[in-house]
Predict the structure.
Amino acid sequence: MFPLNSKHNGWVIQLTVLSLVLGALTAAALKTQQAVRTGSGIPSTRFPALAQALLDEKDKNKLLRKEITDLRSKLNEYEQSWGRETAQASLLSEELQKARMLAGLVPVEGPGLEVTLQDYPGRIPNDLPPVIRDEYLIHDMDIRDVINELFANGAEAISIRCGDSEQRVIAQTAIRCVGTAIQVNQVEMSSPFTIVAIGPPKTMESGLRTRGGILDNWRLDTAEGASDLASRMVIIKRKDQLVVPAYSGSTSSLFKWARPINPERARE
């Protein structure tokens, strides 16, 4: 026998390590193959089992194709039924949209007027009595009078804007003085107020400027410079395109006491 030297020992060790690695790789490959067969649903690699699996898949595909055909048939029936009811559904949708517009629940656009009401921008004499000094300030009644006149002359939608806040005027809108501020829909506002009105611009402006109307009787004749107050406190602009937002308050609290009458009772 020949003595094993260090060089020979190193070769034996390398061969042993390589054998172990090869064995581990072979075992891993076998496990992977087994996992692939198990995960794919193929019971074995034998030809009869594969043939049976193929037949089973064909049967499943046949059932799925039939289900698709049935669903498409039902969809066609639904589409035809919807087509027969389209006219009625369209009419109901149109009526609902009109009702929402009347209630102020949708934003609208169109031509109209911007009417700005502002406190007198000039110097107010200090020696005027309080009742006269009030004539130089915008009050809640001024806003209400202008809005009533606009509605009377064809306005279809109105909002009141103050800075970044804008409130839609609806049937339940209250405009009132609270201290030094004016509340619109319970939201505090202050001068200047811009009333946005969608409607016939020329007709609405004529209604405001008519002789003996709001602007002619804007303030007491006893106020100093009364004839000039309207021109300084009221600014009217015609606009080709305006936007009035939808009512932004809660609609759930609008009606606490009123409720619809049953149609049968209404006919009594």
Notes: Residues 108-244 form a domain with the Alpha-Beta Plaits fold (CATH 3.30.70.1880). The two ends are 128 Å apart (CA to CA). The chain is about 50% helix and 20% strand.
